[in-house]
Specification:
about 40% helix, 12 strands, single chain, 10 helices
Length: about 325
């Protein structure tokens, strides 16, 4: 066991449901090891501004079920600058804090690596709804976001059925189509389009015309953000086909809400494991889960890993989704 006395925790990048459950696990696990625990508020910005405060057991009461992050989060691109990051290191050292756990996405991991290189024992936990981190099968927040998207798409299905409409639904996942894939399959969407599948609007129009010939009277198309302008696509469908069409952008609704039980369990396991690894002297690594087993990956390797995406090409779910 490495000698660890004081540990700090922060959340960084976009928030994700389940971050609170991870914070709770880190705090409670660290306290049970006899460590002092500190909260860093507002991510790396709070670190350099010395927004660091001691926590106790009750600091994390009643949060396992809450979305967002009680610590707040921020984006501070300047943290990539060594001089800026050094301010954070000094603030930690002033308080005698030896270790830090950071919950966030790949940008947050780069911050972890920087702190590690400056001598702070530091570990990353994957917290981001997009599931875009290759060193884990699931990130904290992904399952909740999928549940939120499915709930919304189910509702759109009802009204699309009534009005014989084609609904074009934009979900999050700019660089990773996992939300679109999982929500699309679970809600029985007719077509799923992601950054990985590529986008050919003429093919989409052909798909819709064929569906019309087959007398389909309702269509659900799920698309990840930034692939195309969904409002313009819905407008074209309305103008050029017999379908009335509407675009719905689910947006930040996917980032909020109570975490699903799956995310709470995942977050608790990852938080616990992060403290264990710090106690074992690990640093510059991130925690993840594969085949239900906890894994620990050096961050440089994690940042190089390519994600094993669910699906590589456009998905017509009426035929095969395998
Ligand atoms: P999300 O997936 O939700 O976007 P993320 O952690 O990838 O989460 P970013 O905004 O990319 O979100 O990164 C979070 C923070 O990590 C940044 O605001 C910055 O403070 C820090 N960070 C990002 N890149 C670096 C880097 N190269 N070196 C040091 N710190 C970095």
């Amino acid at each position: 066991m490495a000698k660890v006395n004081k540990i700090a925790i922060l959340t960084s990048g976009g928030d994700a449901p389940g971050m609170n459950a991870a914070i709770r696990a880190v705090v409670r696990s660290a306290l049970s090891h006899g460590l002092e625990v500190y909260a860093v508020y507002e991510g790396y910005a709070g670190l350099i501004e010395n927004n660091i405060h001691k926590m106790d057991r009750s600091s994390v009461s009643n949060i396992i079920n809450r979305g967002g992050t009680i610590l707040g989060t921020a984006r501070l691109p300047e943290f990539a600058d060594d001089e800026v990051a050094m301010k954070g290191v000094e603030n930690l050292k002033k308080l005698g804090i030896d270790c830090l756990v950071a919950i966030g996405g790949d940008g947050t991991y780069r911050g972890v690596l920087k702190l590690h290189n400056f001598g702070i024992n530091c570990i990353g936990i994957p917290g981001t709804i997009d599931n875009d981190i290759a060193s884990t099968e699931f990130t904290i927040g992904f399952d909740t976001a999928v549940n939120t998207a499915v709930d919304a798409i189910d509702k759109l299905r009802d009204t699309c059925n009534s009005h014989h409409r084609c609904s074009v639904i934009e979900v999050m996942g700019r660089y990773c189509g996992d939300i679109a894939y999982a929500a699309g399959v679970a809600s029985g969407a007719d077509l799923i389009i992601t950054s990985e599948t590529g986008y050919d609007e003429e093919e989409v129009m052909k798909f819709i015309e064929k569906a019309q010939e087959e007398n389909k009277h309702r269509l659900l198309i799920v698309i990840t953000e930034k692939v195309t302008n969904v409002a313009a696509l819905a407008n074209r469908i309305k103008t050029e086909t017999g379908f009335d069409s509407r675009a719905t952008i689910l947006g930040h609704i996917q980032r909020g809400g109570n975490p699903s039980p799956f995310d709470r369990v995942l977050a608790t396991r990852l938080g616990d494991a992060a403290v264990d690894k710090l106690m074992e002297g690990e640093s510059g690594v991130c925690i993840g889960v594969f085949n239900n087993e906890i894994v620990c990956t050096p961050i440089p390797e994690a940042l190089e890993m390519k994600k094993n995406i669910f699906r590589k090409y456009a998905i017509d779910t009426n035929n095969s989704v395998r």
